[in-house]
Amino acid sequence: MREHINDPYVQLAKKDGWRSRAAFKLMEIDDKDKLLKLGEVAVDLGATPGGWSQVAAKRVGDGGMVFALDLLEMEPIHGVDFIQGDFREDDVLQKLKEKLGDRRVGLVMSDMAPNMSGVPLVDQARIMYLAELGLEFCKEHLKPEGAFLVKVFQGADYENFFRAMREVFKTVVVRKPDASRDRSAELYLLGRVLR
């Protein structure tokens, strides 16, 4: 708890009005990779508390759209259309598809993490399952030049998922933003341009 409170990104998020320190992860990646363009449609999977959705809404502007989805409740954010539900359930996915209509998505973002059990193999399998669901969503809804930014953990199945990303995207790179804690096994994979 002390580490969290003293974390410079937590303090900066509070000072600057961001909902979470995760906002800095997305800003750093976006500053480098230019993923969020004005007028873009973005989907934020596992959005609560809303740090990534906040950043996305600001960067796509009023002409863009951000659709956010999470199992947990999220306080409203200007420019973000939120759906509460489980991404693993067909009816929730159907709601998202209906809201998208025939719009193609420029960026799918997934900072989703399962409830952690503390058992590394179990947690690894759970996060990879969520990442795979996000990848399947991309195949159906991403525009050809779109991108997928997804959190994964290093460990079992990482190499297999990396290969699966390379089958779907022309380029796949690894990102570990400064705002990601050093001791964390999390990495972000960024896939760009559908094959």
Summarize the structure.
This protein is α/β, with parallel strands linked by helices and 195 residues long. The protein has a single domain (21-194), classed as Rossmann fold, CATH 3.40.50.150. The protein has helices spanning 2-6, 8-16, 22-33, 51-60, 90-100, 120-141, 158-168, and strands at residues 41-45, 65-70, 80-84, 105-110, 142-153, 169-175, 186-194.
Describe this structure in words.
- The protein is of the alpha/beta class and 195 residues long.
- The chain has a single domain, classed as Vaccinia Virus protein VP39 (Rossmann fold, 3-Layer(aba) Sandwich), CATH 3.40.50.
- It is built from seven helices and seven strands; from the N terminus they run H-H-H-E-H-E-E-H-E-H-E-H-E-E.
- It has a seven-stranded mixed beta sheet with strand order 3-2-1-4-5-7-6, sandwiched between helices.
- Helix 6 links the parallel strand 4 and strand 5.
- Helix 3 runs parallel beside helix 4 and helix 6 runs parallel beside helix 7.
- It is globular.
- The N and C termini lie far apart (44 Å).
- The model has no long low-confidence stretch (mean pLDDT 89).
